[in-house]
Amino acid sequence: MTSAHVTTDADVRQSVSRDASGLELVPDAVARPGSVAEVLMVLEEASRDRTPVTAAGGQTSTTAASLTDAGLLLSLRGLLGVRDIDHGAGSVRVASGELLGPLKRQLAAEGFLLAPDPTSEEDCTVGGALACNASGARSLRYGATRAHVRGLTVALVNGDVLELRRPSLEKNTVGYAPVHDLVDWFIGSEGTLGVILEAELALLPLPAWVIGLGVPFPTETAALAFVVAARQSRTLAPRCLEFLDAGALAIARTAAQDEGWAREASALIYTELSGGEADEPPLDGWLELAMEHGALEDDIRVYEGEAALREARRLRHAVPATMHERAAPHRPSGGRRVSTDWAVPYHRLGDALAASRRAVEARGLAQPVTFGHAGNGHPHQNFIARDSAELERITDAVSETLREVIALGGTVAAEHGIGKIKARWLPLQMSGTQQAMMRAIKRELDPHTLLARGNIL
Q1: Structural domain span for residue 256
Q2: Contact 73, 31 (CB under 8 A)
Q3: Average pLDDT per 10 consecutive residues for the chain, totaling 457 residues
């Protein structure tokens, strides 16, 4: 390619060769456009020359979706701008390169909550969150990113631009249901169908107050029973129900610089409650439920106020960050961090974790550090592979776990997408007919298979 926005400089190519997956893939070239017009120029030229293109934002992907070693990596970090905050409609129009965390703070200053809250929100772009339908702890109450998208501006591989909005019809019997709303085609498509340029996102009123609770338990069984009871409660309405096993709690304890905290605990549940000015925080109800399930009362922590809530989030984020650091020294020998994001119905989470641990033990592996969204039946298991041989054994254990997960009515990927790493497991969940339909959409929008090669299919 000859575009002025494209470089083959070795240092630039190397700078975009890693994401959170632990893989390294060096692209042939990198494009860094600063406007929509420049993005379209790059796509038109790539389409003409049959150059593969992989779009990337903050490169926080755990599945290598934002990496490529074939063709052009298209960085969208230069697409910036909060176009419009509509107070009456409760929406914002924003360019895909904006970082999610700063955007959320800007909207909070206007009295709005942008609900999606992936752990990587300080580093991930809006476009990246849309491309993998990101979620996070608070998706228990608010749902994943998809539920908050009202419209998209998308560039196809040939440079054509689609302006898409959610249909406002209450009734529609025209054609097949999957083609009624094209917005959903692109959310979670991981860059395989088009390049997201801009989005209109729905906003919620900012809660008057938010309180976090860290509740430690002597056993995992008690912690998971507490989660089920909280989900089924008619009076308690948690924003999140986050789980930390003993290994994850040890990391959080170190991050808190309090090695004496909850030393007798085997698991911890973190929850948040929120409400309006007239609502009374139901702390007594939560503490009563915790005591009924054997919580370690003296070690329960309350996080009240913005600073305290940021600290609670920091402790939770310390878990994947620490595991990423622990994996780094093993890359030269073919090792890396292996991160899962399977999910099952929340009341079957204990069964799924037991099956996972049996698969790991049978292969003589160290048990993973497990944490994440227990309220949705959706944990993250982080393994450290010290070399390529151990990586293969971990991958085999994960494969066995995923077969059990599917048998329990679960999914192989709940929030991080499929990318390149998990594409091997798509057939466990998707039938041949479903995969054929996905390929048909792909052929229609990207006939030469230039976009995000290796992702999903």
Answers
A1: 209-325
A2: yes
A3: 80 96 96 97 97 97 96 97 95 98 97 94 96 94 96 97 95 94 98 98 97 98 98 96 98 96 97 94 96 97 96 95 96 96 98 98 98 97 98 98 98 95 97 97 97 96
Task: With beta carbons less than 8 A apart as the criterion, state whether 223 and 372 touch.
Answer: no
Question: For 256-387, where are the alpha helices, taking DSSP H only?
Answer: 283-292, 306-327, 349-362
Q: Is 364 helix (H, G, I), strand (E, B) or coil?
A: coil
First-residue to last-residue Cα distance in the chain: 26
Q: What is the DSSP string of 102-159?
A: HHHHHHHHTTEE-----TTTTT-BHHHHHHTT---TTHHHH--GGGGEEEEEEE-TTS
Instruction: Determine the Cα–Cα distance for residues 414 and 88; give it in Å rounded to an integer.
Output: 33
Task: Work out the burial of residue 173: count CB atoms within 10 Å of its CB; fewer than 13 is exposed, 13-18 middle, 19 or more buried.
Answer: exposed
Query: Whose CA is closest to 448, among 157, 37, 97?
Result: 157
Of 325, 359, 394, which residue constitutes the final position of a domain?
Answer: 325
Residue whose entry in the numeric block shows the structure tokens 């329960």: 300
Residue 146 sits in a domain whose CATH number is 3.30.465.10
Query: Would you say how long the chain is, in residues?
Result: 457
56 in a structural domain: no
Could you tell me if residue 127 is inside a domain?
A: yes
Q: Are 131 and 238 in contact (CB under 8 A)?
A: no
Q: What torsion, rounded to 10 degrees, do the Cα atoms 282, 287, 288, 290 define?
A: 130
pTM: 0.94
